[in-house]
Write a structure and sequence with these properties.
It contains 5 helices and 5 strands. It is an alpha/beta fold and about 130 residues long. It has a 5-stranded parallel sheet. The protein is globular and about 30 Å long.
Length: about 130
C-alpha cells in the first residue's frame, strides 16, 4: 500500500508498530534516531512518516520543524505517536500547524490503521479519538 518511515528510539515499540503496519499492508522502514530519520527521508522520501515525540538528541517537534524546512518534504504526511499525555495545548497547536496528526501510545492496530489512512488522505469512516 504505502511506503512508511517510522522513527522511534525504542526498538521494542518500533518493532511492534512496524509489524502492525506491515500487517495492514504497508512497507515500513524503521529508524531509531531523528537525525537518521531526516537523512532517510531526504534520500528516499516515503509516502508518509510516523514519529515519536520524546527522543534523545532531537525531539519530534524539532524534527518536524526541520522536516518542514527541507526542500521537497514540506508537505510529507506526518503522524505523531507519543506516550506523553501531558503535551500542552501550545505544543499540540504547533504540531497541528506543522501538519501533524497526534495519537497516543499505547495504540491499537485499528487506531494505527486509521491514523495511517488519515494522513495518507484516504477515506476514514468513524475515526474515534482524532486529535490534529
Amino acid at each position: 500500500m504505502a511506503r512508511l518511515l517510522l522513527i522511534d528510539d525504542d526498538p521494542a515499540v518500533s518493532l511492534t508498530l512496524a509489524r502492525m503496519l506491515e500487517f495492514c499492508g504497508h512497507e515500513v522502514t524503521r529508524i531509531e534516531s531523528a537525525e537518521e530519520g531526516l537523512s532517510a527521508a531526504v534520500s528516499s522520501p516515503p509516502d508518509a512518516l510516523l514519529l515519536d515525540m520524546k527522543m534523545p538528541e532531537m525531539g519530534g517537534l524539532e524534527f518536524l520543524k526541520r522536516l518542514r524546512g527541507t526542500p521537497g518534504l514540506g508537505r510529507l504526511p506526518v503522524g505523531v505517536i507519543t506516550g506523553d499525555y501531558f503535551l500542552g495545548e501550545p505544543v499540540l497547536q504547533e504540531l497541528s500547524s506543522l501538519g501533524a496528526t497526534v495519537r497516543y501510545k499505547p495504540i491499537r492496530i485499528e487506531d494505527l490503521a486509521t491514523l495511517t489512512a488519515q494522513i495518507l488522505g484516504q477515506n476514514v469512516v468513524g475515526d474515534p479519538g482524532t486529535r490534529s
